TrEMBL record:
Protein name: Flavin monoamine oxidase family protein
Family: Belongs to the flavin monoamine oxidase family.
Domain Amine oxidase: 111-358
Organism: Paenisporosarcina macmurdoensis
Superkingdom assignment: Bacteria
Amino acid sequence: MNNPIIIVGAGLSGLRAASLLISQGIECRVLEARGRIGGRVLSETVVDRPDLGTFDLGPTWFWPQHEPSISSLVSELGLQTFAQHTEGAILFEQSKSEPIQRHVLPEGTVEKSVRIIGGVRSLIDAVSATLPPGTVELDTRVTAIRMDEEGTITVDADLAEGKKESIGARAVILALPPRIVARHIAFSPSLPVELMTSLVDKPTWMAGQAKVVAIYNRPFWREDGLSGQVTSWAGPLQEIHDASPDTGSGALFGFFGIPAKMRQELGEERVLKLVVDQLTRLFGPSAEKPISLLYKDWSSDPDTAVDEDAEPLREFPNYGQPKSTSEWNKKIFFAGTETSSELGGHLEGALRSAERAVLEV
């Protein structure tokens, strides 16, 4: 009996790869270190207030006009989308002491994106639902991948409660950030130096970032003719957008301009206080008391970030397939958005990499 294909990582890329393999009658197992599926897709509700909606602390939107894989998959799975709100003026903040500038951009300047009703987690759940029960194994942390002289692959994993398991594999798809592969999985024989360098040189998308969502009863800024979009040099948020669901409550989300080390030194409570101060400065007294603040610092997530990711990205990374795997050729394959040569860092890149890896397998 043939061993299964082992997929390491149950983010969008790993789940999609599994779905494609199973649709072709190829047995696979998905091993996930976290206690949940989704990877960097993280959609949350407010405790005791699910009526306010679901909010994304990871990827949020996509562009149907440029991203055919996710557009096709969303349609195939019967998911509903709505247009990201961009109507109205945008705000520019040069410093805390200077007046906030308000500008209306010419029509067509902001490219239209869409969001999935129920958050991107709806996509994760829908792809997961295409898999047979038991395909995904949570709390299963792959620690080593070994190949013997006959080319037989064994995957070693740590399970819950101190248990361990060794699993035979026909091949392995590594659907997790390349730097996590390089830093946390031991290979025997060792991966070539060129390949290891290629893995480490691919920064994990969002790994140095944090995201905050401020939730309100309604999107009150729209009543003032504002889109919710802000560019700020004063911070702590350098980029803010409307995060409101398709109906009901209002929400604003932002990315930080202050680096990971500074956020960690300040602590979550102080960081969130600075966020509320900034939103009040920008949007007035109505922003002063959000119903809830949702916060995720990806740089503090050991299943996302390594030490190198604490350095802010200065330019878009050089994503694409890692370089040749020599004796590991046709035994290990790479998926995940950082391994996509097109639209790396996007949900589209995650899907394209999964499609490519399955074709290679």
